[in-house]
Amino acid sequence: PVTVRREDYAAPAYWIDTVDLSFDLDPVKTRVLNKMRLRRNPDVPAQALRLDGEELNLARVMLNGAGCSFKLDGETLVLENLPEGNEPFELEIFTTCAPEKNTQLMGLYVSEGTFFTQCEAEGFRRITYFLDRPDVMASYAVTLRADKTKFPVLLSNGNLVEEGELSDGRHFAKWVDPHKKPCYLFALVAGSLVSRNQRITTRSGKEHLLQIYVRPGDLEKTEHAMNALIHSVIWDEARFGLPLDLERFMIVATSDFNMGAMENKGLNIFNTKYVLGSPATATDVDFSNIESVVGHEYFHNWTGNRVTCRDWFQLSLKEGLTVFRDQEFSMDMCAEPSARAVKRIEDVRVLRTAQFPEDAGPMAHAIRPDTYVEISNFYSVTIYEKGAEVIRMVQTLVGRDGFAQGLKLYFERHDGQAVTCDDFIQAMADANPTSELARQLPQFKRWYSQAGTPVVHAQAAYDAAQRSYSLTLSQSCAPTPGQIQKEPYLIPVTLGLVDATGAAIPLQLGSDSPALGSNHTLVLNETHQTFTFVNVETEPVPSILRGFSAPVVLDIELSDAQLLTLLAHDSDAFNRWEAGQRLALRLALTAVRAEGAPPAQPLSDAYLDAMRTVLRHPQLDAAFKELVLTLPSETYIAEQLDVVDPQRIHAVRETMREQLAEALHGDWEWAFDAHKNNGAYQPDATSAGRRALAGLSLTMLCLAARENGSPVWPGKALQHFKDAGNMTDRFNALLALVSSGQPLAQDALARFHALFKGDALVIDKWFALQAGAPDRGGNILPAVRQLMKHADFQMKNPNRARSVIFSYCNANPGAFHRNDAAGYVFWSERVIELDAFNPQVAARLARALDRWKKLAEPYRTAARESIARVAAKPNLSNDVREVITRSLA
Ligand code: B3K
Ligand code: ZN
Q: Which fold has domain 757-889?
């Protein structure tokens, strides 16, 4: 395997101006004719043309209409004797490939009888020989030919310019894309599909056609996605002045897809999971994911497609920015301000449970990495979610308007180009010359070059005589692989001070300084810095890192009383939630660290009272309550420890859940009854929050029933399951039974399967729920092995493989980490099995043991042995090899 280095970037030796592709589509053998006009890049020394290819059968190469000499260097097609000078020349390459055999789902493949493509990052080379790199941007014309009965719909990027009949029952369609693009944005789809069509007129008065293509029968499940698309178009124009630049914008859904969706120019291809949603089959979480993924891919049309990446090290240029944009979109779609805070908390929860561990583990990388072996491994939570946090800090530093100005300048400068993260941040700084960002740009850019999660330590001292409050903030960042020394970051720390009654204290830094209001962003740019607030009448409670203003760990010693004050009163919803999490985390860690058997009642009365107050609170909304009343995850608890015993963490958290269930029994009953009936299903955040709280209440009541043996609530849950008017309520009732280990769960699971057999996305939930259920005496692994024998299980379908295997290995630590190592053995078998046909999915699974070095014995040794077993396997893909090598390093 070759390591690719960012510093080795060199401009391409040739440019490709136009590409004329013709496909004779046949699942067994598809013929591809690629006619390109190329020219030498005059800025680069003359050299041979080297075209990337992978698993292609080469039939013919012609240069300016005549045969020519060429050779193959491995899979690279090399042409040495090209005309000298800067005149364009034409190359014609004729190849074939076998879409039906393409199990990697990269390049051209077949899913349920329909052709799809996936080219990002390096899949286009599996379709034809090409300069498969994002800085080569060309104009495409694409002709598709296929059997008309089997493939009535023929789609590619851009506009349909011609279609017609051919002999032998075949037909053709010709598409021309008016926009130049890198080849990773190429797409084609051919199959038997139907579409929901919507014409819209945008601000400029232009008409556009929006289409969502799905399999016949799924059309009524596309309404929500279409609404999300319409809202995305309106939002991008309103918030950032970015219009839809296409006459036709298409989304196509496929059930075989390695990830969520793909932003191919004008022809987005989506995992069905993020398109199809009806109240009967999709949960509130699904509805909200559909909205944000539709938005995300649409927003890429500007951030990614109009301006793209110079090279793949710049991936966060488009991904971090586009995640930030989809997060803002989802927040702006919320009617209530409290729902915005809920969305923010959910996003931070993802960051802290998935990205922080990545940043502390063997695969840690900066949001702009310096090296990679397989770029697919870097479509990571770091590039995406931490990347989005870095963009969010930019917005915090330059303000919302300043950010919009910066984006405007970025497009003025770079529209149509392939650029770098430096270009983006420079535009932001230049549009905001007096901002802290512009003044301290080199330091801010360390967020792009340094990996690892910084720790901000806060130490406060109140001086009653001086009526001053000084806050010392210091920062540090632990070494990450290949980066020992870290330079201080520029960290925006938004904070407020609260008095014991919960009232906000006006902020002032020094008596001659202006009043700062009750919420202020400090800029921490040194290793240690002290900020002194004046005119502070009583000792305050600090509320630091409001809204999670930077992706850091805040290390601060707050007493239980202070945390309870923040939980009860903080005007910042994020920190209010955070105070509750800190209280719970402290109790969990105490119980985990205690000698001997874990305590039977880890939760304190003060904590339980506070939770009761939140649950019964007349003003707080249900979604927020549900978040506060959900304990920190096992993964998050594990991250706080140097040595991790996953079984013990699981046992402690389960005990805490049971205690919370029993101590608040009457309150849960009230909460369930008060939130269960919501009338006709609406996916909005407020109704979703009510369903979420009803669902949590039901789970708690079934958990308590497990302890006291009463059949009442399990019976009610089963009834609720049967009567449910939507998937959220039905699924939550099922979850309540399964996660509390109620015997009635078996009945409900069987009914659920019978009700939804044939609906793949719902059956995925059925599998995932069982593989992710709390372990009771080691019962989950045998259940998982059994599920893999189920007639509906398909290893080759990524959604299905994820629903069973990932739900177990990645999302169920209490069941996966077993004393007998059987979970790890299962994992190594599956990594090897998957790697043989789909390296990308296998490499994701390979990440499940990333944090093995932190495990206590006997887990640690057993984990290392399992990883070594994978490493010993010959012919591993580059994808898995890179993950495993780094893990053992
Ligand atoms: N850009 C794609 C991800 C492609 C992943 C390739 N392994 C989806 C997205 O981020 O929108
Ligand atoms: Zn993206």
A: Zincin-like fold (1.25.50)
